[in-house]
Amino acid sequence: MTTIVSNGHNQEDYAKTVFGGGREHHEAEHVVEESETCGKILVVLSWILVCLTMPFSLMVCFKVVQEYERAVIFRLGRLLSGGAKGPGIFFILPCIDAYARVDLRTRTYDIPPQEVLTKDSVTVSVDAVVYYRVSNATVSIANVENAHHSTRLLAQTTLRNIMGQRPLHEILSERESISQHMKALLDEATDSWGINVERVEIKDVRLPIQLQRAMAAEAEAAREARAKVIAAEGEQKASRALREASEVIGDSPAALQLRYLQTLNTISAEKNSTIVFPLPIDMITYFMKAKEAV
What is the rounded CA–CA span in Å between residue 239 and residue 59? Predict the structure, then answer.
């Protein structure tokens, strides 16, 4: 993380850290003392300018930030002690103070579709959405040039890296775990930028047309195989039921006649013009025996 030196820090310790000891250390102390002296003189001159141009200077010195904003103030190029200002009114000195507004509201970044080669060598197109916000306004300004742009680029590369380490079936079935893993990686990487990643969601996984057709054919074949197995089991159960019914009808000839009548009733209910009437074999046998007797 980049070291931030403010007016409230020990300038002597900072000089020791940067320049080392000995003669260089004394020279560094001299430079720091001159810088502090020059800074104090400029601050006094700025206050004099404010007093001389009163009340017009108040229009320049007083600034307002909204409830969802913070102001990071730099005085003579150094970060002003006390952290970010706001919300509400804050005061700056003309000519020597500069400030940057930071929006603390949650932002949404729609990651464009990324062409990814999965672990099992399948090309897929994956897109996601990232919800993030600035958690530390001072760090987001002092430690990175553009925190939002850096977070978006990191989200794209992280999505490609995670998808490239997993096979296709995990990408399709474990979106929730992939989203949580990506959120943890982004949150850890952007913590030094003052960014807090709140949520990551995988929106869509697009497969090539040929792969979609192959998967559809495979699923259709599996469904047909299950249908044939179910039909065979039904035929087996039906044959057993018919065998039991034939045994019952064979024991009672009257049951066969009742079955004939039930069949006629079923046919007549369908309003058919042709009715097939089953003639019992016993009647034909009776007439044949009578003819032989004559």
Answer: 98
SS3 label, residue 122: coil
> For 245-261, b where at least 16 C-beta lie within 10 A, e where not — what string?
eeeeeeeeeeeeeeeee
Task: Please report which residue ranges of 62-174 form alpha helices under DSSP H.
Answer: 137-142, 147-164, 168-173
Q: Which amino acid is at 176?
A: E
Stated pTM of the model: 0.63
Helix H or strand E segment including 290? helix 281-293
For the chain, the farthest-separated pair of C-alpha atoms sits apart, in whole angstroms, at 150
pLDDT tens digit at each of 294 positions of the chain: 444 444 444 444 544 444 455 566 566 666 667 677 787 888 888 888 878 888 887 888 888 889 999 999 998 888 888 888 888 888 888 888 889 999 999 999 999 998 888 888 888 999 999 999 999 999 999 899 899 999 999 999 999 999 989 998 888 888 899 999 999 999 999 999 999 999 999 988 888 787 778 778 888 888 888 888 998 888 888 888 878 877 777 777 667 677 777 777 777 766 666 666 666 666 666 666 666 776
- Taking the C-alpha atoms of residue 186 and residue 154, their distance in angstroms, rounded to an integer, is 7
Dist CA 145 CA 194 (whole Å): 12
